[in-house]
Amino acid sequence: MVDSMVTLAQEGGAMTDTGLAAIGAGLVYGLGAIGPGIGIGLVFGSAIEAMARQPETAGQTRATMFIGFALIEALALIGFVLSFIVLGAGG
Q: In whole angstroms, what is the distance from residue 44 CA to residue 48 CA?
């Protein structure tokens, strides 16, 4: 897949660092979003299951769920910022 993108870039003129940096930034954020996406799904799924099994602890479970969600979401935001750093380093 990367070979075809490089070939396509070469046919269009010259391969530039800006284009490669944009591809790199897209890959960084795309791969960086996989982990948090899976993690958020697991956190919410487990919390719903826990609340269904023990409804009396729903408040504590919900609070813990949102703390976990915030920490996982921070990883996605770090990946987003890192993609801009990669894009800025290439250009």
A: 6
C-alpha–C-alpha distance, residues 81 and 28, integer Å: 10
d(CA 13, CA 5): 13
**DSSP letter assigned to residue 57:** G
Residue-wise pLDDT for 32-77, tens only, equals 888 889 999 999 999 999 999 999 999 999 999 999 999 999 988 8
The parent domain of residue 66 ranges over 2-90
Count of domains observed in the chain: 1
| Three-point CA angle 66, 83, 11, nearest 5° | 145
The domain that holds 43 is classified in CATH as: 1.20.20.10
